[in-house]
Amino acid sequence: MLQRLLIQNYAIITALEIDFSEGLNVITGETGAGKSILLGALSLILGERADRNVLHDKARKCIIEGHFVLPELEAVTAFFGEHDLDFGRHTVVRREISTAGKSRAFINDTPVTVQQLSGFAGLLVDLHQQFDTLELGKQDFQRAVLDALAGHDTLLARYHESWKALQQAGRELEERVREREQAEKERDYRQFLWEELDAAALKENELEELDAELNTLSHAEEVKERLGILQGALEEGEQPLVQQLRQLQSGLRSIEAFHPQLPGLAERLQVTAVEVQDIAGELQRVYETVQSDPERMALINERTALGYRLLKKHGVQTTAALLQIQAGLGEQLDQTRRLETDIEALEREKARLQQQAERQAEQLTAGRKKQAAPFEQRVNALLAQVGMPNASLKVSLMPAPLQTDGQDHIDFLFDANRSGHYQPLKKVASGGELSRLMLCVKSLVAQSMELPTLIFDEIDSGISGEAAKQTGVILKKLADRHQVICITHQPQIAGKGDAHYFVYKAHRSGQVTTHIRLLDKEERILQIARMLSGEKPSAAALENARELVEG
After folding, report:
1. Are residues 86 and 183 in the same domain?
2. Parallel, antiparallel, or unpaired for β 110-112 and 103-107?
3. pTM value > 0.90
4. Within a domain: residue 475?
């Protein structure tokens, strides 16, 4: 529950502190005194947006602080674990708005995002304001009412998982089908290119090696002629180089004893002679291998012509690049074939998820239908209690395609005058009727919820007399299981409060500021009497007020 609310420098509030009771807390005051400003401040720690305009004193920051006594609910403790926060039964939620308009939020002094703050507050507080009656006409709200009454939390969570998985499978299937369609457009051409390269049966570096061989064959006669000349110069002729080197080495050996460096030079000449003789042998062997072969040249020319045509076609320069292209085409063709397998598997998975979601949706539908009639009866009984005996609510559940929350089209239909003609709420119900209907609905739903605190801002709009009294009875009953905070203009409701707070304006130093104080019993009687008959209540009004407080 909300134990304490502290407000500093917000709107026309300089500083204010409120300690709330566990039961029904009523807040009264003149129109414009600042009652709704309190809820505006409270909404900040519930995760609403804020800006610099809320600052009362533009030179100081605004601070809103709520002290909560937390219930030991699984959802609450799970929130603390999920966001790595220290759980404490007594938790402080704080929101700060700087002079520059920058907002910061804290839970137990740990910084959190506004989204996290909103999620946390949603587990603790339900804030109903006048415009919230519009929610009654919305499908999501109506569906949530039936699901709350049916206790569908676990089933809905499972369905949402199935629905999410179904949507994901559908998206993946669509993507694979698009890929297949695109691949099929290009498959024949890719197959042709792959087969062309496969028929060529190129080997690694083949074109480069054939180019080198062709170059040799094309110059075979010239090569043989030059090789013969060289080989002859080294080993044959009148004075072959090998013989000259040996003679030089022999001459050097004859005088090597006369100088210390000569033996080394003689050794080097000997090595050179051996090397030159070896070169001559290699030249001879190369000479013998070089042959003019017109048939081989024709074969090479034919093979390289095919290779060059493929190189040009694919815009590459090497055999390796062609082989890489062939491998890529093969992979693309394999991928096209795998797409068929993937699509078949996804179709099976989507069908399985569809059946699973449909089974869960049928369970949701059954639970909602089971709650519809009892809900209608209980709401209509409460409507009579709050002064609408001729009004009745009817729940329409019609089949719908599978969607986010099941397969039901839910509509709350309303008949204000027992005409037998039911129409959607948003078309026929007045503001006052919607307010009372919302109270009836929330009072029933609250019995199925673990929400600790319910806040109502002028839920009594458009009612008075006996209807206001019965509204107070409903709120009082709600307060048996929940903390209820209610801003009201009705004395009949104010009299039901366990704690009564009075909001007023004060003029100080030329400024108007909002203040609040908890009334004792006699002050409550006086304030309620003023609500009944004016600023100077009569004795009858005072007596009536006493009956409302003590009754």
Report:
1. no
2. antiparallel
3. no
4. yes
462 and 551 assigned to the same domain: no
| Residue 324 structure tokens | 């890489």
Same domain for 308 and 200, yes or no, is yes
Higher pLDDT, 164 or 463: 164
Query: How many domains would you assign to the chain?
Result: 3
Q: Are residues 77 and 66 in the same domain?
A: yes
Checking if the pLDDT of 489 tops 80, the result is yes
| C-alpha to C-alpha distances, 301 to 198, 199, 214, 296, 306, nearest whole angstrom | 20, 17, 8, 9, 9
Examine residue 153 and state whether it is found in any structural domain, yes or no: no
The verdict on residue 505 lying in a domain is: yes
pLDDT digits (tens, 9 = 90+) for 211-252: 877 777 777 677 677 777 777 777 776 778 877 888 888 888
Tell me the CA end-to-end span of the chain in Å, nearest whole number. Answer: 26
Please give the angle made by the CA atoms of 426, 448 and 378, to the nearest 5 degrees. Answer: 55
Q: Residue 481: how many CB atoms within 10 A of its CB? A: 14
Average pLDDT for residues 179-188, to the nearest whole number? 75
Q: What is the pLDDT of residues 434-475, one digit of tens each?
A: 777 888 888 888 767 666 788 887 777 767 788 888 888 888
Angle, CA 85 vertex, CA 79 and CA 91 arms, to 5°: 85
Q: For residues 459 and 439, is the Cβ–Cβ distance under 8 A?
A: yes
Structural domain boundaries enclosing 481: 1-124+452-518
Q: Which residue has the tokens 């397998």?
A: 341
What amino acid occupies position 97?
I
Residues 387, 436: Cα–Cα separation, whole Å? 9
